[in-house]
């Protein structure tokens, strides 16, 4: 049982792969938080050059009583490093430390660290236990929950990976204090996402509390993280391997992935691309007759107020829409070359569908020309 | 339902990951054999430079009516190519052909092709369906069944991989006609393995039929493949992810992996290393008081008669036993630095245990000095 005085928990129900999300303050430094994680002779904290100096010692201290050896692997920071080469440095370290099949990996950092560490855990000796310790808002509300792990390929984001569930997710809100403003906003993109796809009342709450969230008020952050995780837990619990429903969590991501791939990974933050991608997906929903202009305006406003881009980048001066379409055709949701979009209906539900190229082209041209005020 | 006039089937019971092993002649050229494999817009046959010219067209012909596009990826042949670089060439090809989440991969070849293709299927877009079409005896009786996939790391064999089950395994005995003698013997090592760990009557049968097997008599091969798959299916069905029982299938593999890694992958065939490793494991079992000298002699004789090495190679002229021990300590079965061996008791059952270094050293020295007659 986790201690309950300084944290809230959200359960993820996936049969024998079920686990708990712990949300609160002071968690990294509390050994009791980790008391249900499997024992082993060694643990490995995987982090990056930005986060490790801030938090790795605190986490290592909490694990010292439980594991005879606590090793650290420090990766370079950034989406550009979510690749084979860096993944291999994790395997090199694990083998260099003679880590075995019971060794527990701890992913301490943002989405990149979580995705690549989770994939390393999925593959090392065909699977070792791992724990997500997300230190960015984006990772706390989205990427650390649900078991999607992986790396990027030059031809597409997250093209290589595994569904592999962590044993525990620890969201220590204290770590958000050191988060750069730009990354806070990127995380808010994924928070905002849960409104249009699942809970319009939550969208109302976000609109009312956006100032408090940007000011990093702990109570506001705690609610945003908890409600986001609850919605994600509900969706993932119904469709762990994304055979259907789970795909709605990718609202804004089809356009967003094209932006990230087209500009080169790392140019825009993932959350920035998703923020802009949601505006584009809302515009597509409007052109398909699912929402009206006022809903598009509402979503555009909240994205902009979260200090996220609402104007799409031009990816190719001559054939911009073609470039977007080509990039979206290799999206994982595409089937037989048909791009599948997550669209919303304005009542807090979302669905997947294809769309005529002409409509998609119009959305791309309109979104690239849109003026930020 | 599979056609039954020219094949036998062995079911693998793993809940929603259950599948069938089809064993027979003329299977590659029969579209009906593949009728239960999921449909998709494309299929990809992954093979190697040796096997593709012999059998890829035959398989492609059987798939042509079911998939609009049947692509081929041809890898270089050999254990030395079971690595990241070659795995990435599969991903490059899949993305280059715009393969989606429903694309079915067909692994046409031996253990290397099966392991790397299975791992590619496990990881591509976090998992696509795949079919094993093993064309070597070793792959038909062992590596294609049970869902172990992966690649090697310079510091250890199969260190990176996944448990990922195929949708179907097709063992076409016709493909064994073109198998080099050395690979036929390597496959017999894994056939022999099933006797001491699970079925002494099968060991008797092998001893009586070794001549027929070496002469590639179809009826003998069919029985050897079927009985081997039945034993493996039974073990895997009880312990899919190797938390216990399944490890007995690694009889001879702890020593064998050290031989392969110490000589450099590809120097000895996997089955050759396993053959010699079984002799070493039998000697260790004897030193632990589990079997007598006559059992060791019996196993040594059948391994030798199968034209497999029974003398272990010297891996280091000065510190040979240390080198073996260091290589075995990174074996996946090791825990906290303790090497775990599969030992046999002479009655057709096996178990896992550690052993004092002194005993292991004695086995290594004795096995390296043993004279082949």
In short:
The structure is a homodimer of 373-residue chains. By secondary structure, chain A is α/β, with parallel strands linked by helices.
Q: What does this protein look like?
A:
Two copies of one chain form a homodimer. Chain A is α/β, with parallel strands linked by helices and 373 residues long. Chain A has twelve helices and eleven strands. Chain A has helices spanning 52-63, 84-96, 111-123, 137-143, 181-198, 200-214, 218-238, 253-263, 270-287, 293-305, 320-329, 357-369, and strands at 7-12, 19-24, 42-48, 69-75, 104-109, 130-134, 148-153, 156-163, 168-172, 341-344, 350-353. Chain A has a seven-stranded mixed beta sheet, sandwiched between helices. A two-stranded antiparallel sheet of chain A has the order 7-8. In chain A, helix 4 (137-143) packs parallel to helix 7 (218-238) and helix 5 runs parallel beside helix 9 (270-287). Chain A is globular and about 60 Å long. Chain A binds chain B through residues 40-42, 84, 88, 91-92, 95-96, 98, 100-102, 122-127, 148-150, 153, 155-156, 158-163, 241-242, 329-330, 332-337, and chain B through 40-42, 84, 88, 91-92, 95-96, 98, 100-102, 122-127, 148-150, 153, 155-156, 158-163, 241-242, 329-330, 332-337.
Output the radius of gyration of chain A. Answer: 20 Å
Structural class call of chain A reads: alpha/beta
Binned, the helix content of chain A reads 40-55%
In what order do the strands lie side by side in the largest sheet of chain A?
Answer: 1-2-9-6-5-3-4
The oligomerization state is homodimer
How many distinct helices of chain A? 12
């Amino acid at each position: 049982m986790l201690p309950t005085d300084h944290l809230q928990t959200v359960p993820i129900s996936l049969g024998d792969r079920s686990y708990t999300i712990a949300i609160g303050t002071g968690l990294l430094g509390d050994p009791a938080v980790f008391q249900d994680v499997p024992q082993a002779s060694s643990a490995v904290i995987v982090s990056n050059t930005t986060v490790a100096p801030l938090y790795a010692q605190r986490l290592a201290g909490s694990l010292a009583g439980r594991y005879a050896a606590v090793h650290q692997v420090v990766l370079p920071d950034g989406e550009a490093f979510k690749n084979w080469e860096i993944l291999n440095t994790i395997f090199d370290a694990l083998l260099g430390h003679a880590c075995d099949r019971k060794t527990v990996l701890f992913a301490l950092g943002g989405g990149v660290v979580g995705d690549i560490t989770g994939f390393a855990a999925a593959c090392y000796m065909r699977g070792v236990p791992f724990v997500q310790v997300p230190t960015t808002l984006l990772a706390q509300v989205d990427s650390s929950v649900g078991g999607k792990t992986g790396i990027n390929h030059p031809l597409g984001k997250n093209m290589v990976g595994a569904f592999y569930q962590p044993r525990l997710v620890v969201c220590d809100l204290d770590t958000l204090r050191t988060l750069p403003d730009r990354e806070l906003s990127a995380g808010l993109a994924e928070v905002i996402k849960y409104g249009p796809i699942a809970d319009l009342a939550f969208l109302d709450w976000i609109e009312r509390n956006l100032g408090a969230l940007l000011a990093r008020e702990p109570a506001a952050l705690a609610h945003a993280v908890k409600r986001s995780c609850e919605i994600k837990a509900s969706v993932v619990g119904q469709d762990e391997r994304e055979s259907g429903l789970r795909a709605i969590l990718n609202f804004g991501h089809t356009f967003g992935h094209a932006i990230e791939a087209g500009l080169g990974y790392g140019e825009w933050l993932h959350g920035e691309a998703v923020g802009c991608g949601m505006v584009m997906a809302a515009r597509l929903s409007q052109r398909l007759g699912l929402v009206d202009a006022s809903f598009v305006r509402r979503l555009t406003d909240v994205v902009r107020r979260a200090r996220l881009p609402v104007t799409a980048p031009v990816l190719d001066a001559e054939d911009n829409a073609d470039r977007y379409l080509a990039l979206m055709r290799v999206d994982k949701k595409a089937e037989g070359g048909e791009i599948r979009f997550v669209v919303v209906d304005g009542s807090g539900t979302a669905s997947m569908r294809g769309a005529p190229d002409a409509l998609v082209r119009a959305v791309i041209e309109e979104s690239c020309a849109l003026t930020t005020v």
